[in-house]
Amino acid sequence: MAGRLSLTRLPSQAPAATAVPAMAARMAPVAAASSFRIFPAAASRARLSVSSSSSSTSLCSRKCLRSSPLVSHLFLNQKRSPVARVSENRGLSSVATPKCAASDPDQLKSAREDIKELLKNKFCHPILVRLGWHDSGTYNKNIQEWPQRGGANGSLRFEIELKHGANAGLVNALKILQPIKDKYSGVTYADLFQLASATAIEEAGGPKIPMKYGRVDVTGPEQCPEEGRLPDAGPPSPADHLRDVFYRMGLSDKEIVALSGAHTLGRSRPERSGWGKPETKYTKEGPGAPGGQSWTVQWLKFDNSYFKDIKERRDEDLLVLPTDAILFEDPSFKVFAEKYAEDEEAFFKDYAEAHAKLSILGAKFDPPEGIVINEGPSESAPEKFEAAKYSSGKRELSDSMKQRIRAEYEAFGGSPDKPLPTNYFLNIIIVIAVLAVLTSLLGN
Predict the structure, then answer these.
(1) pTM of the shown model
(2) pLDDT digits (tens, 9 = 90+) for 272-287
(3) Catalytic residue status for 134
(4) CA distances from 29 to 43, 46, 81, 98, 278 (A)
């Protein structure tokens, strides 16, 4: 199941997407100008209709509904999620209506734990990284409007984009993640793709990536980008081609080389891409589905082996694409490739920054500042302390503000068990000053 990892578009057949149905018949109701309708299971004649002129349903509810798993299942041929309950006359239950925030922080954390378990069982690190990259890698910095500018917006879940040549085989990544999406309906597809990608890097031994979440999903296949925004593997001029594609996204030569280093994970399968061997001594027994040709010997371990192996080229069983070889041939690229081959720590640092930058390209966030999930409680933007709000004594400090004050107190050496350390010299000066004042008063 582990697949090829790349932002590189490889000549290929259409993905084996038997699990993804044709969408023409299913999308017809959604494309209506004034309203859209969702038809659940055939056994039920219930129908949910949301009209653009309805006074009982807010715009916010309609926006959230369109990005809910109910609509997405129409394209993925999965069983309907129980997020929304439909009745003949009353539509959505008020209890089941999804929130208008992009993703729920607690569900994001839980989904991350499920992804970790998935990686342990299916060894699907490479294809999940590739999924996140290809959803965000369509970004065009020269287009301001969302979602026309492309980027990390969940559009890769639609069949029309899955059929792009560069996305061959990614339907398998979608099928792997769909049960997690069903379980955590409060997480958008855009966030789930990027969460899976970053988690796969970290669980493979890579650096901690400073991610943020809260990406808004596109709502229909008409919002998918046109084909051709992702790079090819074997263009006539690899250096110029890489720069054309990555500069369009606002990325630098350093970031191009650092991101290329993620080829330390994964394999290329000739039946999908036209590149690589059917199998090698490193891939014939898996793990995961056997076969394909890897860039490195340990193709499920994230390290700097990719740069070392390309530089040495001593093993014919290891893959080197034209866009890989150019990293040590182009003078500007070579500076960074040589550095990363010698210094894994420098590679990890630059890769983490480049991956985080790639993951937010083109995204629209709700809340605008995004959501950060750590090992502790999830949080959005830090609360700004304004003394006037608390000066009356009638308002209690929030938990987050208490934690900030506590952290600052402990930074000075204090703790719940002991007071701050005493400055004895300052105390002596104060005592002398007090005695001087008392002596003066007694003298008068």
Answers:
(1) 0.65
(2) 777 889 999 999 988 8
(3) yes
(4) 19, 15, 19, 21, 43
